[in-house]
Every structure is written in C-alpha cells, then in structure tokens.
Amino acid sequence: MQLPYNKSAILLKLILYTGKDFMYRFDPMAIHDGPKSGEGSGASSRSTDCAAGLSTTADYHRFAPIDLMSEFTICESFSDPASPYGVILEKPSSYGAMVGDFLVRMGLLKDRSALCEVGGGYGSLMHGLLAGHGNRVERVYMIDLSLSLLKRQRDRLSPWKSRITSIRGDIHELLGAVAGIDLFIVNEVMGDLDTLTGVDPSHMPPEAEELVRAYALDIPEEPFNLNIGALRLVEAVCRTGIPALLTEHSCDPVIPDDMAYLARDLDLDAYPREIKLLRHSEYTIRFSHLVRVARAHGRTARTGALLDLIPVRKGRSLETIFRLRACDTQDHEIIYELLDHIREYRWLAIS
Ligand SMILES: C[S@@+](CC[C@H](N)C(=O)[O-])C[C@H]1O[C@@H](n2cnc3c(N)ncnc32)[C@H](O)[C@@H]1O
What we know:
eight-stranded mixed β-sheet, four-stranded antiparallel β-sheet, binds S-adenosylmethionine, disordered N terminus, alpha/beta, 31% helix, 14 strands, Rossmann fold
C-alpha cells in the first residue's frame, strides 16, 4: 500500500505496517474534546455561520452502541441467503455476493484485488463478497469510526483473518491518505456523513458556496440541505484515482425501466431530507451532485437503481403486491415493505 507524503499518511503508514493480527487504531479526532467512551451517544447538530446547521453523526458512531437492525439497511436485510427478505429474490443470495457479482459485471473486481471498505457495519457485505468471490481478493482494508463495529467485522470475517486489516478512523479525514488499493466500497454510509442543513441559497456558508460554485451544483430557491460529507468523500475518491462503488438512500431515485410502477408517489428530483433514526439522523443523498463532482474530476461515473444489482423475481407478482398493497400474507408484507424502501436506493460507480 503506497501513501502520499503527508502527516496523516505517515501515521497511517506506520499503523498499516504494524503486525498483521493487531487491531489497528487511527483516530485523529480522539484527541479532541468530546464524550469519553460510553458517556455521550447522540448525533449532533451545530449551527454554522449564515444560519445553516451542521448535522454530524461522528460522536454517535464513535461512542454509541450501534444497532443496524433498527436502521433497516439493505445489506442487513440480505445478510445471508436464508434471510426472510430473500423471498423477493430470483434465487437465494447474500447482499455481499450480489455486490460481488455486480462488481465483476462492471469490470471493477479484478484478480488479486486489494479492497477497502469504508463503514462495513456488521461485516456482512464483505463476508458475502469473500464467500462468493474470495479467489479474486488478496487484501481487505476495513475502515470504520466505530470500534465496536470494527470488532464485530473482524469476528464475522474470521475465516479470512489473514487478509483483513482493520483501521479505526474518520473517513472525512482519512480517505485522502489511502492509496495502493484497487477499489473502495462505501455501502449505505454517505447518509451518515456531515450534512449542512437549512442552507439559505442567497446566503450560503463558505463551504457550501465553494462546492456549489466549483461543481456548478443545481440548488433550489428555498432553504435546502447539502451533503457536504458525501461531496468531499467523492472529491477525495476522485483525487486518489482509485475506482469506487458507493450506494445510499437517494433523494433523486432512478427507477428500473421494467419496474416503472415503483415510481408511484415518488419525487425523483428532490433535495436531501432528514431520516430520523435511533439517537441520530441520516440524510438522503442527491446523487446527481455526486455525479457532477466525479465528472468534473475527469472520472467516469455510472449510476443506477440499487435494484440493478439485486436480481428480484420476474413475473407480475411483485407488481401486483406493490400496486394493490396486497399484504394478506407475511411474505407479501415483507415484499411490499422492501420494495417501498429499496426503490429509493442508488449506486454510483466511479472509475
Ligand atoms: C448505516 S451503517 C452501514 C453499515 C454497512 N455498510 C451496511 O450497509 O449495513 C454506517 C457505517 O459507517 C460507519 N461510519 C459512519 N460514519 C463514519 C465516518 N465518518 N468514518 C468512518 N466510518 C463511518 C459506521 O460506524 C457504520 O459502520
């Protein structure tokens, strides 16, 4: 793994070249004032100049016990092929295996790859990917802000222990220092990153102003939320020159051609909205903004509906359940709930 020559890089280099089985720790923010482990747990929202607020989940992820089941992540819904949500699939599979298949189809998962997953949660995506395509993967770097989740990832990925390096760090600060890998995977994480809230378009805080100008981002006439964390992340990914797959709950969803019925009552061109979760909030992501950033950096940006990588059952039954909200069995309920949720999710591949 090569690293550019800067302060974080030197620190990261030292950590990465330490003994293999050690739980690596890189947490530049830990020296800042803040709740000690277990004391505070909530996400915070600070006000900035120009009356905008800043929503950040950093303290929540650093200090709170995290329950991903309460967040209904798509990854955990298909955490293994026997999951109850599997009723929607053409054939049983885990989310990680489906992501692996998609990456191979997109030409993004090459032989002898070194992968870096940011915000790996319970480790389910990487487990499925290694179970399905482990022969292509030489090394895996798992970066996460949450120490308890890093530990959980290590347990889940123990069959491939010798290939895994865990790094505790905040991706807002770390990504620019990572190099020498072949692919970043950032699954359902961007909504957790910093978001400027209530931005007045005629009086924007400097960071919003800078991003909007630099990338000619479209903005509405009324106060809006801006995914500054996700935009900076895409900027950093682009500067590394490394390919990436990013997915998240979007506010500008795209609907697969053969499932047009899913567009019912959806705004396909909205701005980020708050999703209140247990002790923190996430924000949906405006993918068209991310695409602009990637293309401005001369990168190829391909994007689509997350359903592109989840092969769901063919035939009319899903459509009928969705149209009629026909929930007379538990399976129907699961299918309706999942379709209603998943239809707003998107992927973005940067290469
Ligand atoms: C919503 S969970 C998604 C987990 C998993 N990718 C999935 O799809 O189930 C967000 C993950 O990102 C991590 N995370 C959140 N903010 C982060 C940050 N600033 N830097 C690094 N990791 C972060 C969390 O600790 C958690 O593992």
